[in-house]
Design brief:
single chain; 469 residues; alpha/beta; 9-stranded mixed sheet; 7-stranded parallel sheet; 14 helices
């Protein structure tokens, strides 16, 4: 139905023109995939590394002679009207090209993202935000600013939080109660019973790199299917036995923070419950205690590490909801339709086992431009923040990095407000420096950080806190 509406609108008005900022993997996939999608044109790509933007267009199959550099909006507009495709290291120029209707912001740099999103909104262009770093800090105020200008600010299909928001919306629209929801981590944990190992592969992230935990015969008992009534103990023991393997990343927490702010679901744990679970075990464990699970109540948000045999289907980076139908007949009907049920058959897991990153963004672009809708939640409010603690002693003058900075460890907390002793939202830290020595384990506060001069990101954060008191 939705796709037919889009098709009809495209037939009536012609193609949608989008600009992409950020030519990493995600942005490049948007550019390469769009050539297969009728009605979508991406005539300009920007990156601070102009060669990366050029490469994205060449990877899409455009002739080298038709891919041209532009350093101004006027030059870019003329080239595009002549049938060329433009790359640039000046993202701001696409804001002044009148036929560019939506900006896909995928730099991953919070300060740059704040600048690009604000410029786009002020020029009444829709924004598809792939930059979860900026979204986690100032997403609610950017959405409010967009609404005031009559444009859409939205996460994207293909990123996990965008997909989960759509799945939750679908579940609620069909009368389900959401008991819990969340994401599978971006890698899977392969159980080899005969070898007594659990391995994780980072293939596609850092090349072909395997990390393995070796287990004793006694340890292997904790990787059998979980008996009823032993859910909490099993996930605790599995986490202990696999603690040397990669743990939940701050990038996972960043996405969960955005999900919580869109949906009102409550993070089950500041760093997730680190559940190493088979797909079939998720509804058994991630439901309320009265039904055998680990949660005190409904409406929880979490993540899990998909545990499977090598030959089994997995859920690398997929999303899920655990729901109740509210009717005994309907609940029983689900069990005959391939749904994954918990032990007392009160809760059902519905899931999407994959996310395809930039390959699915066209739905978001068309929805924003043609239908004026995003793939977001009912209300986007600053309910929670991702903040950082010192994973080791940090010396004054050291620079803070992003979600892959090994000297930092994230956690999700109720939304903070500026004060010297208040925790700093994690991605306000990016690229800034420690003002004082910070001991390992300490939550990083405003008094410990050298505040940057004339930072739009920091300014918009203050505005968000003022507007959402």
């Amino acid at each position: 139905m939705l796709h037919q509406m889009i098709k009809n609108k495209l037939a009536a008005r012609g193609p949608v023109c989008a600009g992409v900022i950020g030519a990493g993997d995600f942005g490049t996939v948007i550019v390469t995939q769009h050539r297969q999608i009728p009605g979508l044109e991406i005539p300009i790509v920007a990156d601070v590394n102009a060669r990366a933007a050029q490469t994205a267009l060449l990877e899409a199959g455009f002739d080298r002679d038709s891919v041209c550099y532009a350093g101004s909006a006027g030059q870019a507009e003329r080239l595009i009207q002549d049938g060329k495709h433009v790359y640039t290291d000046r993202p701001e120029i696409m804001m002044d090209i009148p036929f560019i209707e939506i900006i896909c912001e995928g730099t991953g740099v919070p300060e740059a993202g704040a600048r690009h999103c604000k410029m786009a909104i002020e020029r009444r262009k829709h924004v598809a935000v792939i930059n979860k770093e900026v979204d986690s800090v100032i997403g609610p105020i950017l959405k409010k600013m967009a609404a005031e200008q009559g444009v859409v600010y939205t996460p994207v299909q293909g990123d996990q939080h965008g997909l989960l928001l759509s799945l939750i919306s679908w579940a609620k629209a069909n009368g389900f109660t959401v008991v819990s929801a969340g994401k599978a981590r971006d890698v899977e944990f392969i159980l080899e019973e005969q070898a007594r190992t659990v391995s994780v592969s980072w293939e596609g992230i850092t090349g072909q790199e395997w990390e393995t935990a070796h287990l004793s015969d006694a340890d292997m008992a904790w990787f059998a299917p979980i008996p009823q009534g032993m859910e909490a103990e099993y996930i605790r023991r599995r986490a202990e036995l696999l603690k040397k393997l990669p743990q939940t990343g701050d990038f996972d927490l960043c996405e969960l923070t955005i999900m919580a702010n869109h949906t009102g679901l409550r993070p089950a744990n500041p760093r997730t419950n680190e559940g190493y679970l088979r797909i079939t075990e998720v509804p058994q464990v991630y439901c309320e205690r009265e039904h055998g699970g680990i949660y005190p109540q409904e409406g929880m948000l979490d993540a899990f590490a998909c545990l499977r045999r090598r030959e089994d289907a997995g859920m690398d980076g997929g999303v899920y909801v655990v729901v109740k139908s509210g009717n005994p007949f309907s609940q029983g009907y689900l069990s005959r339709r391939g749904a994954v049920l918990n032990g007392d058959r009160s809760c059902t897991m519905l899931y999407r086992p994959f996310h395809l990153c930039g390959m699915e963004v066209a739905d978001t672009i068309f929805g924003a431009v043609l239908l004026c809708v995003g793939c977001d939640g009912e209300e986007y409010l600053p309910r929670y923040d991702l903040v950082k603690t010192a994973a080791r002693d940090i010396e004054a003058g050291e620079e803070f990095g992003g979600d892959h900075d090994e000297k930092l460890a994230g956690m999700i907390v109720p939304a903070t407000h500026y004060a010297p002793d208040a925790a700093v939202p994690g991605h306000l830290l990016d690229g800034n420096r420690a003002l004082v020595d910070i001991p390992q384990g300490a939550v990083i506060t405003y008094s410990q950080v050298a505040e940057p001069e004339e930072s739009l990101l920091w300014q918009l954060r203050r505005r968000q806190e003022a507007d959402f008191k």
